[in-house]
Design a protein that fits this description.
This protein is α+β, with helices and mostly antiparallel strands and 266 residues long. The chain has helices spanning 7-30, 37-50, 123-141, 149-162, 255-261, and strands spanning 54-55, 72-76, 79-81, 96-105, 108-117, 166-167, 173-175, 182-186, 203-206, 209-211, 217-219, 226-228, 234-236, 239-242, 249-250. The chain has a 5-stranded antiparallel beta sheet with strand order 8-7-9-14-15. Strands 1, 2, 4 and 5 form a 4-stranded antiparallel beta sheet that branches. The N and C termini lie far apart (36 Å).
């Protein structure tokens, strides 16, 4: 069932999502060679709780019913999504790490993701990140009243595949509100003019997951971490948006992150 949000509910969603953006900015301050993803997770959880929210990812069950053990998903290099932070995973120069973060505050969820560079990254990888982020905003341009879900997926797919990148099919965006995952699913591929009609008040997380090589993926034995099958790098960017007339309302924000990164922003 799809729940359309009132203006008051959208403002509560915005508060949760802005906190995600601020949390990701705290990560931007820390990311450098030698830092562990476990350290990032510890700081993120403290920051989220200090701001009156709880991390929605921690304890969230997978398809086997196993609870996610951390507050962030930190996916390094060929990990696509749902990487588990660890003190044993040390970031190195040339790595990329996508950080997906969720919060729950005032009864509503926030959800956003950003892929960060660690030190100096190869040009082909930088281009993957750039195109994936561009695709996110092209998808958002289609999140307006009167269009359909297929228009969002089509815009993302066309931009990424025209740059010879793979578009992951098995994991998709989603509705969001009082629950982190609500209807409808929001694929990063599709046909224009097809799928669910977009109505004002629909709130969705749009999150292209794009690969440098083949789009095929594999699940690690931990039941969470998703990797590219060919072990080539993958990028992931995500915004939560509210559908409205004329222009989507982006509830999350990369502005806090980019204020930290400055001219090193993607």
């Amino acid at each position: 069932m799809i729940f359309l949000k009132t203006e008051d509910e959208i403002e509560l969603l915005r508060q949760s999502n802005l906190l995600v953006g601020k949390t990701l900015a705290e990560m931007a301050k820390l990311i450098k060679p030698g830092v562990t993803t476990g350290e990032l997770d510890k700081v993120a959880e403290e920051f989220i709780r200090d701001n009156g929210a709880v991390p929605t990812f921690k304890g969230f069950p997978n398809q086997y019913g196993d609870p996610f053990p951390c507050s962030l998903c930190t996916s390094v290099n060929d990990q696509v999504v749902h990487g588990i932070p660890s003190q044993s995973i040390v970031l190195k120069d040339g790595d990329i790490v996508s950080i997906d973060c969720g919060t729950y505050m005032n009864g509503f969820c926030g959800d956003s993701a950003y892929t960060f560079c660690v030190g100096e990254v190869e040009e082909d990888v930088l281009n993957l990140l750039k195109v994936t982020k561009e695709a996110l905003y092209l998808g958002i341009q289609n999140a307006v009243q009167g269009k359909r879900l297929g228009d969002i997926g089509y815009a993302i797919q066309q931009h990424c595949e025209s740059n010879s990148y793979g578009v992951v099919r098995e994991f998709v965006g989603h509705g969001i509100g009082k629950e982190m995952h609500e209807d409808p699913q929001v694929p990063n591929y599709g046909k224009r003019g097809t799928g669910t009609l977009l109505k004002k008040g629909l709130c969705i997380a749009i999150e292209p997951m794009i690969t440098l090589g083949d789009r095929q993926i594999t699940m690690e034995r931990d039941g969470w971490t998703v990797r590219t099958r060919d072990r080539k790098f993958a990028a992931h960017f995500e915004h939560t948006v509210a559908v409205s007339a004329g222009k989507a309302d982006i509830l999350s924000s990369f502005e806090f992150i980019e204020a930290v990164l400055g001219d090193k922003s993607i």
